[in-house]
Backbone:
């Protein structure tokens, strides 16, 4: 078989040598645009798992690669002038030039023909071949020739970065975060030979423009970075090699092969450099393709097998890379975190490394994180050892929660409080949590979601709540948060055992909402609230707050989420009013804030008031996280102490990306942008998830699922 | 985890009388449920009719559709048929619904393919109401009708599941993909504030014995030809040995599956018996 390979990068060379090894009779030619020995880039990194696959695929090149390796174990993070180290991350790297040299040498040993300086402008120029392997990088001419078939999409990143080297020896992977008069810059640096290291310098566009780097040529850019990193370089020289500032392009491609053409590596997918997997993925592609060609008689089946094996792996890495990329793009959000929390947040950014993982990798780092967490939260003296973050108390005004766990049963058995309801709540309070949050409690009977809902609407509710809360205080150390709600247009529905939003046919009560829009096509149409209705509802919230205080609740939470009444004012999807309560955000906030103020005025000064808020409607035209940040800031300014982060449910067909911890990112965003403590659930079932959220500054309280 | 068996109504060469025979034997062998698939433009027996025939010969088996392609059917007719089947079987129906994956079924039914998701959402929103209060229930049917499962889900779909259904039915694949889907279903359920947990059902193809395995793979490659190269992966997933079945069931059980329905790929009672024997050996059948 005659095989032509485009591109003599790691993917092309490795594919060539592996196929030749399995089929010595094949005639394989690799065409490279650049002259021999011209290479861009400095070092490339591999994990130990990747090395194991190299070992199986071709032992000789594996041996030569590993003999030139730099291996390190630690990640150092420089932030606010402090260095925090975390060990146990076994990573190795090699200079790209050395890697290419080894692969070229192996190709020649096996009889693969290498031709350098061969610029191919058009696939028709190629000599006749049976198989064409395009490993010609992100600008692949083969992919472009059939782009209608391959359906590629390229998304440029928001940050700018430049790939530099340094004549410096490093003993760890090093993250450096530097703030200067132009903004924030970070360097991702790692050693790759006995003498040199890679330094990738990255910043957001604003910092880049402020520093005038859009106008800077290669020498000026180098000089700027040299000055920026001077304290860390200690006199070592930064080096450039045709280095330019670019935005990282993420390439995804729907199809991977066409007729007798198959794509590899960067020609078909890229993943942000911050997870260091580009070369690894490319070489693993080569292994998979060579195996598939060995196992399948016809090209079509081989290509299918190759694509089926690699696509899911590549997609997984692209997801992790996208998480990591967006982390670095939004880094400024986390500058309020202390060094330990910042470092923990950085190391757990991809969502694939947790608190328990890091503790296992480096116990000392784990202890540092625990100790700082307690110390920074007002522990009287720096403890020698500290329990994990979830056991740290949290002070909200004069209230102290004994730990960071919350139990929030969303429904109770369909009983009145005097009967089974109170004992279900008591049981929940006794589960070891710091805070028990009640299900939504209607502030009026018309504000109930279902006829079974608890209310705090009539004088006779008072006694039941007083008894219930007293009992919980006597028999458990948990503090009691009462969640006050008005269901709005999601009211008067059947009990939730067989589903939500199923309108009551008998015994229904009239509904009110910001606008007269039924929640689902089947729902009862609500009445648009008049000013008099608003007075009634505001007063009902205030009255319930007073009674809750008399009944000795420790905390109140106002429900402004889930598409209920107050939420219906906040979202433009449910609020289409033309008066001063609709339209702009300021207008949509007016009534919810009025209710908040009325409650805050009655609720004791030294007790915390919380709000449950929709951080994203997950629906076109709805509230976005950016708008939710503004709402949270407005609430904070009025004396709100805590936000419970929720999402979706404003309209019935929201696209909520359900998975474990699906609310965590929203919480991290809201907490750190609005500067307010948050409480988050989102299907958390393990202490590891909770500690990862707390230690990384993504929330202050976590709602654990009842198992 | 309970284990049920499929009724091979979509497997070519399935003789009509074997439907009732199969159901009777499944009950004798103490399977927990009998599951059916749904195809319109493919030689097969209609799922609800098949289950009605099965119901007449059995007393205990749960009768589960995994799934009925909801949008192909008029909602009121579907409501009536399901309520009737539920009543005639003494409350044994579990109605799994999804949009299905084949355009040709929609063409054959003269139903718009592009709005299938929206139509299923409407059906989910209205079926229970039609049973409870719309006068479309049957004599002697359960007040709220049969349990509803939803399959094949997008992000929106998991939200709908939590809002209207009683559980999730997984379309197949290795335990780890089920575990991810199960997490999504439980996350949506908890987010909705539904009491308890969603029911989690799953399915997998089996063929025991070398000859059957060969025939089973051939069938799957034909039945799933529309998935393109993915068909290979589906055929590879066929459970052909007791060891494969043991590990597969263990994986699903650990991921929280409530009921696994094993689907035959060869329409022969000996397959049912061999499976029952394997399951008894594993302590999974009485």
Residues:
């Amino acid at each position: 078989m005659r095989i032509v390979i485009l591109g003599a990068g790691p993917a092309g060379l490795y594919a060539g040598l592996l196929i030749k090894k399995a089929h010595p009779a094949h005639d394989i030619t690799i065409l490279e645009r650049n002259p021999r020995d011209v290479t861009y880039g400095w070092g490339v990194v591999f994990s130990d798992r990747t090395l194991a696959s190299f070992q199986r695929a071709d032992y000789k090149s594996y041996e030569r690669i590993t003999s030139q390796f730099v291996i390190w174990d630690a990640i150092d993070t420089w932030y606010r002038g402090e260095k925090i180290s975390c060990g146990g991350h076994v990573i190795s790297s090699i200079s790209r030039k050395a890697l290419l040299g080894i692969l070229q040498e192996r190709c020649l040993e096996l009889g693969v023909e290498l031709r350098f300086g061969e610029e191919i402008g058009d696939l028709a120029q190629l000599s006749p071949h049976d198989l064409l392997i395009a490993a010609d990088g992100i600008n692949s001419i083969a992919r472009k020739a059939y782009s209608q078939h391959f359906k590629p999409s390229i998304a440029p990143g928001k940050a700018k970065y430049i790939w530099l080297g340094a004549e410096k020896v490093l003993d760890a992977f090093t993250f450096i975060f530097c703030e200067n008069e132009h903004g924030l810059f970070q360097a991702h640096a790692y050693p790759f030979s006995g003498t040199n290291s890679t330094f990738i310098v990255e910043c957001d566009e604003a910092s880049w423009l402020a520093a005038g780097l859009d106008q800077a040529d290669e020498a000026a850019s180098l000089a700027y970075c040299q000055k920026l990193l001077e304290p860390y370089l200690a006199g070592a020289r930064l080096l450039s090699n045709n280095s330019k500032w670019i935005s990282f392009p993420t390439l995804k491609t729907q199809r991977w092969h066409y007729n007798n053409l198959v794509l590899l590596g960067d020609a078909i997918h890229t993943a942000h450099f911050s997870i260091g997997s580009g070369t690894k993925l490319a070489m693993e592609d080569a292994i998979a393709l060579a195996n598939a060609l060995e196992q399948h008689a016809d090209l079509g089946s081989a290509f299918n097998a190759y694509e089926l094996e690699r696509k899911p792996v590549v997609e997984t890495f692209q997801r992790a890379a996208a998480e990591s990329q967006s982390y670095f793009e939004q880094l400024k959000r986390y500058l309020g975190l202390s060094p330990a929390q910042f470092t923990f947040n950085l190391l757990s950014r991809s969502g694939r490394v947790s608190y328990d993982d890091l503790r296992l990798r480096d116990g000392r780092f784990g202890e540092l994180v625990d100790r700082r967490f307690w110390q920074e939260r007002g522990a009287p003296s720096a403890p020698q050892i500290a329990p994990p973050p979830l056991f740290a108390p949290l002070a909200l005004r004069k209230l102290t929660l004994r730990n960071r766990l919350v139990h929030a049963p969303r429904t109770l058995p369909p009983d009145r409080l005097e009967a089974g309801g109170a004992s279900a709540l008591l049981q929940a309070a006794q589960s070891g949590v710091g805070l028990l949050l009640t299900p939504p409690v209607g502030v009026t009977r018309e504000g109930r979601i279902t006829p079974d809902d608890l209310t705090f609407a009539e004088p006779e509710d008072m006694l039941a709540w007083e008894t219930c809360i007293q009992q919980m205080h006597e028999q458990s150390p948990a503090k009691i948060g009462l969640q006050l709600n008005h269901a709005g247009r999601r009211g008067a529905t059947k009990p939730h055992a067989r589903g939500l939003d199923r309108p009551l046919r008998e015994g229904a009560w009239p509904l009110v909402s910001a606008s007269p829009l039924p929640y689902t096509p089947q729902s009862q149409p609500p009445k648009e609230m008049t000013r008099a209705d608003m007075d009634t509802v505001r007063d009902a919230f205030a009255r319930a707050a007073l009674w809750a205080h008399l009944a000795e609740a420790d905390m109140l939470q106002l429900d402004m989420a889930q598409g209920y009444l107050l939420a219906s004012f906040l979202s433009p999807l449910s609020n289409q009013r033309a008066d001063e309560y609709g339209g702009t955000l300021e207008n949509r906030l007016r009534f919810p804030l009025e209710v908040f103020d009325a409650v805050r005025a009655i609720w004791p000064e030294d007790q915390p008031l919380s709000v449950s808020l929709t951080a994203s409607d997950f629906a076109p035209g709805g509230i976005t996280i950016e708008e939710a940040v503004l709402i949270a800031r407005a609430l904070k300014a009025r004396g709100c102490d805590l936000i419970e982060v929720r999402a979706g449910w404003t309209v019935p067909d929201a696209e909520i990306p359900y998975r474990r911890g699906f609310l965590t990112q929203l919480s991290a965003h809201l907490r750190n942008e609005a500067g307010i403590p948050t409480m988050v659930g989102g299907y958390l079932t393990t202490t590891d998830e909770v500690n990862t959220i707390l230690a990384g500054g993504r929330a202050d309280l976590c709602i654990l699922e009842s198992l | 985890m309970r284990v049920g068996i499929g009724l091979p109504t979509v497997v070519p060469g399935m003789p009509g009388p074997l439907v009732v025979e199969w159901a009777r034997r499944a009950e004798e062998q103490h399977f927990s449920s009998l599951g059916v698939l749904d195809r319109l433009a493919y030689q097969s027996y209609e799922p609800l009719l098949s289950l009605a025939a099965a119901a007449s010969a059995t007393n205990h088996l749960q009768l589960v559709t995994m799934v009925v392609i909801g949008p192909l059917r008029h909602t009121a007719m579907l409501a009536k048929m399901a309520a009737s089947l539920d009543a005639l079987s003494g409350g044994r129906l579990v109605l799994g619904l999804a949009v299905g994956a084949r355009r040709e079924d929609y063409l054959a039914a003269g139903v718009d393919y592009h709005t299938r998701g929206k139509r299923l959402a409407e059906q989910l929103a209205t079926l229970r109401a039609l049973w409870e209060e719309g006068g479309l229930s049957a004599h002697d049917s359960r007040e709220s009708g049969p349990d509803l499962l939803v399959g094949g889900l997008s992000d929106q779909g998991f939200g709908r599941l939590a809002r209207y259904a009683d559980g999730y039915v997984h379309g197949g694949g290795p335990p780890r993909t089920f575990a991810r889907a199960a997490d999504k279903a439980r996350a949506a359920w908890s987010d909705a504030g539904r009491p308890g947990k969603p029911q989690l059902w799953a399915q997998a193809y089996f063929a025991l014995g070398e000859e059957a395995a060969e025939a089973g793979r051939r069938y799957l490659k034909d039945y799933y030809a529309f998935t393109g190269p993915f068909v290979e992966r589906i055929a590879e997933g066929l459970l052909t040995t007791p060891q494969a079945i043991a590990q597969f069931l263990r994986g699903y059980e650990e991921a929280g599956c409530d009921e696994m329905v094993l689907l035959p790929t060869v329409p022969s009672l000996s397959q049912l018996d061999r499976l029952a024997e394997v399951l008894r050996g594993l302590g999974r059948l009485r």
Observations:
- Chain B has a mean pLDDT of 94.
